């Protein structure tokens, strides 16, 4: 199997106990966006592993893999150190969150070096006294292009099949 064919959109559903997913559960990963001042970049979801209950009480688990492409153009944060907010639109706190970055130079270039962890601080986002999501305040440095990979994990609210997990890609530029 070629890398291109493997990286093309692929959906695999593992049905453990039959049935159709119930509408009462959030069956999809939360939306993720990177905010720098008034600028926003929506995260490109490249991988999700989500499970849910079916109408007859069974469980459905799905693994969806998408193309690994970073959003273009990069979110312009300027040269040097920057601070941006990664906003996740899910009210329950992630049980695990990891953010890593790789440097790059210009359009179509290869990513340089190895992935480095990005420092972050997690805070709840509130509206009307309710938690509506979470914001991870990221602190990093950009010289030309910075490619961010974010992995979020949540407990399965219904206790169906374990953790829910999603991976998003972001692109930040010094321009």
Q: What's this model, at a glance?
A:
With 175 residues, the chain is mostly beta strands. 3% of the residues lie in helices and 58% in strands. The strands form 2 sheets. Strands 1, 4, 5, 6, 8, 9, 12 and 13 form an 8-stranded mixed beta sheet that branches. A 5-stranded antiparallel beta sheet has the order 3-2-7-11-10, with no helix packed on it.
Record keyword descriptors for this entry.
175 residues, 5-stranded antiparallel beta sheet, 13 strands, disordered N terminus, 1 helix, globular, mainly beta
Structural description of this entry:
Strand 2 and strand 3 form a beta hairpin. This protein is mainly beta.
Biggest pleated-sheet summary: 8 strands, mixed
Beta-strand content bin: over 45%
Q: How large, in whole angstroms, is the Cα Rg?
A: 18 Å
Characterize the quaternary organization of these chains: single chain
Number of helices: 1
Helical residue percent band:
under 10%
Total number of β-strand segments?
A: 13
**Sheet/helix structural class:** mainly beta
Low-confidence stretches: 1-25
Distance between the termini: 38 Å
Series of secondary-structure elements, N-terminal to C-terminal: HEEEEEEEEEEEEE
Mean pLDDT across all amino acids: 80
